[in-house]
Design goal:
Blueprint lengths: L1 E10 L2 E11 L4 E6 L5 H9 L6 E6 L2 E2 L5 H8 L2 E4 L11 H5 L1 H6 L4 H14 L15 H13 L5 E5 L7 H18 L2 E5 L3 H7 L2 E6 L2 E6 L3 H4 L3 H6 L1 H14 L10
Parallel strand pairs: 3-8, 3-9, 6-7, 7-8
Antiparallel strand pairs: 1-2, 1-4, 4-5, 9-10
Helix pairs in contact: 6-7
């Protein structure tokens, strides 16, 4: 489980997070949504320890790590894996070398011990037979899976996805959503999805928080995005609700509204 209690953080004299309270339950997919400037990126940096909180508690797997040293935090960071918006693979390395990057290049483990783990990960991700290919030879979906393999090889308990569907077409968005669900089922991880894609959130998340002006609003289950009477939630989802309502009218055979002018 990951829990933030009254977290305050920012840059220099500018505070961005104004007392954030948030819980990501174990083996649950929690989505963090919000407009640009609402604090999503800053919150993600605090969770990963790239930005240290000014005050509050950051509880990872039962331990408050908000005030621990960088060396101590590095140990806790190993419990988490960050999947970037872009796959961010190393173009000059093969698929096998990309997936085995951390244990081989960072942990300095012998390649003969790393390679069997790489092949096991490829098998689990449905990527058998591509270990010697380069990222440029792969489809977008395969690159996303390789990026996940690179993160999952050290078995993190918590997976964080940073805007994983940005810039993708609808087919690829559906594919990424399937991958997120599959990772939860196969690896029993706690997933945190930072996203602006409300349809994707509705598809994969089990709990939602809305970042608004540096505070996390607990929306609850994703369907509450459509029904919440909270004015902040309503304003954020206004155009999406209108889109959904128009779709409902169309599939029920209702006449479209008259054209203006």
């Amino acid at each position: 489980m990951l829990k933030l209690v009254d977290i305050r953080a920012g840059y220099g004299n500018t505070e961005v997070l104004h007392g954030v309270n948030l819980i990501a339950e174990e083996r649950v997919t929690t989505a963090i949504i919000g407009t640009s400037g609402g604090g999503k990126s800053t919150l993600l940096k605090v969770i990963m320890g790239f930005l240290r909180a000014n005050s509050g508690q950051l509880i990872i797997d039962g331990a408050d790590v908000a005030k621990c040293s960088e060396h101590e935090f590095a140990e806790h960071r190993l419990k988490m894996g960050l999947v970037f918006q872009e796959s961010a693979l190393f173009d000059s390395l093969t698929v096998a070398e990309n997936i085995g990057f951390f244990p081989f290049y960072r942990a300095k483990q012998p390649w003969r011990k790393v390679l069997p783990r790489v092949r096991e990960m490829l098998d689990m991700l449905g990527l058998e037979g591509i270990e010697n290919k380069y990222p440029s030879e792969l489809s977008g979906g395969m690159r996303r899976r390789v990026a996940l393999g690179r993160t999952l090889i050290y078995r993190p308990k918590i997976l964080l996805y940073d805007e994983p569907t940005t810039g993708l077409d609808p087919t690829m968005i559906n594919h990424v959503d399937e991958i997120i669900r599959e990772m939860n089922e196969k690896f029993q991880v706690t997933s945190i999805l930072v996203s602006h894609d409300l349809e994707s959130v509705l598809d994969v998340a089990e709990r939602v928080f809305l970042m608004h002006e540096g505070v996390a609003l607990d929306v609850g289950e994703p369907h509450n995005l459509l029904t919440s009477t909270d004015p902040v939630v309503g304003q954020f989802t206004k155009s999406w609700r209108e889109h959904v309502e128009m779709y409902r009218r169309l599939i029920h055979g209702c006449e479209p509204p008259p054209a203006r002018g």
